[in-house]
Amino acid sequence: MRTGIVIAYNSKVKIGIIKDSNGQKIRFYLEGVAITFRRFDVVQFNISFIAGSLRAIDVIHVLDRNGKPVTMTAGVK
After folding, report:
1. Which of 9, 12, 44, 55 has a beta carbon 3.0–4.6 Å from 16's, enabling a disulfide?
2. pLDDT (0 to 100) of residue 33
């Protein structure tokens, strides 16, 4: 799995963009999944070629040792 940071996410239509460790921006769409992401959440994902473009699939939160999602917003207001 790859690791990246959610840089944009629309919770109404469940579409987002992840920036991976190579600086590549990859779109994702969560269909039928009850997970909600926020900007700057750290995620793991696989990639696939869907409808003529590269997409992130199987997107999940990276969890800390307490089981809470890791985010890059520490100290940001």
Report:
1. 9
2. 74
